[in-house]
Structure formats: structure tokens, C-alpha cells
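[worker-b] picked up task from shared queue
[worker-b] task type: protein-ligand structure
[worker-b] ligand name resolved to zinc ion; SMILES cross-checked against name lookup, match
[worker-b] sequence length check passed
[worker-b] input payload:
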Amino acid sequence: MKKIMFVCAILAMCVVNIHATEDVDYIDVVEGNRVNNNILYENVQVSSYGIRLAENALEGSISQTIKSQIAFNAATIAWIADVPDRTGIQVEFSSLLRSGEWSLWQNLPQGGGDIVLSDTALAYRYRVLFHSTQAGISPVLEKLVISYNEIFPEMLYKEFKPWGNATRGVVKPSIVSRSEWGARPPKSGYTYHTPQKITIHHTWRPTSTDYQGSATIRSIQNYHMDSNGWSDIGYHFLIGTYRSSGETKIYQGRPENVVGAHTGGANTNNVGVNVIGDYTTETLHNNSYQALIKLLGWLCSHYSINPDNIYGHCDLNSTACPGTNLYSLRAKIREDVRNYINGGGGSKGTLIGVIYDAAQGTQAKISGATVKLNTGNTATTGSDGLYSFELTPGTYKIEVKKTGYQTGNASETVIEGQTVWESVGLKK
Ligand SMILES: [Zn+2]
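[worker-b] inference finished, payload out:
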């Protein structure tokens, strides 16, 4: 009892509010071994190990109501607890909706889970119920972590359409496996999903100059498992580049076919790729960029993900992640991934056509005409008046020149694996 009093006196406040100390949502942490005056304790006691049932009690609980720092519509609740046989811990969550009503208590699965609300909330409450079937044996709650954020509604209901065929022949880049970087095993089983979109993150901390190879990946995993209470490292992939040597590696986090923890409320079917660094201030190393394109190219190719479904974290949640200097590259990343895939597989289309004398008709073919595309590609027509290009899919502007004629213009959309015709008649 004295020990409890002592802990009480020096550590009265134990819900700490952290925002973006790592790439995370708004987080409230309940440390089980510290008394917090804002928590309602019933039939439980706080020990140096955590919160447990009071002596001889078979039922107990803690509960608390917390005003959120932002209006939120997605939350993730995780906890670390020792639960002996014949005992149990039940965690429930409810939120205060804008209508002024509390949502029904939602019972979370063991190991925690995501909650997505139908409306934004301004506060939430949780309760942890302790059960035992034998006096003296109790579950012990070491830590409860509640993170929440706003997920943008248009992203909640967006359909992520697949892109083309899954066999584009893009080579999988070299990836440091979990055993190679010394990963801990996950604390609980994975939930499987099908990758449909990709979200790019930065770490913020560590910065890119802090990066120390596998040790950095292990420290991020430790933080996610021990501080955030997650089952495993949150991201599916991490990319690190040594600023000094430029050596770059891609690391496997969670397997990409299981749900990660990186985008509050939108983790299902979402692959989280983290580029280690702080891109609010640092600029992306070109080697990191090249590794990112290769990785995303392989992911999009292998899982038929349309490169338009590549996002920055701030597209989905209220966050500065992945930093302006990385987020500003989003359109270029999508385009480069598309080009990378098209260059890596037999996915080009053919643009072909006849250049003819407009006054005389298509049979009056013009040889020696120069056909130039907006990409700079040129071709010269032969005696049959034909020109042709093998091109990656997209829309091209065509300009045709021949001495003695006016310049002809056209445009045509090239489709993967198909031949499209665009013949141009020249006027004198
Ligand atoms: Zn992020």
C-alpha cells in the first residue's frame, strides 16, 4: 500500500498527449503503473506492474472520458496486458458525436482494433473491464494506447479500381527480410487483406541523418510495439539511405498482404511505405527516390494497383506526413511508377497512320514527311506514306511537316497492347 501511495504522489498525471513525435496520429497513453487522477478506478489497484484487480475482487474496471484535440472520425485502440488463464480483460470505446449523443459502447477484439465513426466526434470515453474466476489471480493492464485522427470522408468511400493485368513482369527489388534486420515476431496474429492502394509516409524522427541501417528499423519496431502497443511494426516497407555513402536499402516491415498500422481508420487494403527522414525540412535523397519508384512499381505491377492510388498520408488523415518536400513529388511519383512499369513489361501500344495529300485523298500518300510527337520522338514516312511508333499508353500530340505543305496536327490516345490509327491529310 505504501508503494502505491508513493507512486501516486510523484506521478499524478499519467495520460500524456503526444502529437507526431513519430509519424503517428493524436495519441493518449494510459500507463498502467502510474495513478492518474482523471481515471475512475473501481475494485482495481495500481502496482508497479500495472493496473490489476483489488485483493479478492473478481470484477473491476477503469474508465475515463477525454476531450479530443481535434474532431476525429477514426480511432485505433491497442493495449499491452498480462492475461493469465481464467482471467480476462475487455476494452470498450464510445465517442461523443456532434449530435451530443454518445455512441454505443463498442467492444474491441483482443489485441485492439480500428474504429471508424459515421460522424465526427469531439470526445471519447473508454472502459477496461477486469475479470477473474479466482481471487488472487488477476489480469494486469500495463498500457492502453488510444490514437485517433480525422480520415477524410471522400477517402472512406472511395473505390480503388485495379489497373490492367497482374503480369507486367516488373522485377521485385532487393528487400532486406525481417530476419535479416532482426525483427521481433508479432505479438498477435495478422489480419489478411488485398493491397489496393499505397500510402507514403516519412518518419519525421528519426531524420535521414539519424538513419543507422537495421538498428533504426529495430528501434521503430520497438517503438510501435512497446510504446504504441501495436502487434508489430506499423509499416509494410521502409526505405533508408545513408547520407554519407548514399547506400540505400528497402526493408520489409509487416508482410504487405496483412493489415498494417500507419493510416488511422484506413489501414485495410492499404500498403504503408515509409521513407526514413523528415521531409518537412530535409530533401529526399535521389537514391531513396529511385528505390521508392522501384518498390512502388513492383507493388503496383504485382497487385494490379493503379498508380493513381498512390497517396501521401496527408491525403487520408489530418497530418503533415510525409512532409512537403516528399508530398510535392506525388504527381511525379505516380507518373514515374507508371513509366517504370511500362518500361519493364510488354505493355506498350502501337501508333500508326498514313500521311496523305488532303486535296487528293488517302490514296495520295506522301513519302518523306516528318512526323513529330510532343515527346520529341520523330519518324519519316516511307513510299507507302506510313509512320509508326511503339509507345507507352497515353495521349500524344502529332505534328506533321513536309516541304510544300502546311503543317498538319492531330492527337491520338495510345492503348496498351493495341494498335491505334491516326492518318493525317496535309493541305498545300
Ligand atoms: Zn504518415
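[worker-b] attaching auto-annotations
[worker-b] The first helix runs from residue 2 to 10.
[worker-b] releasing lock
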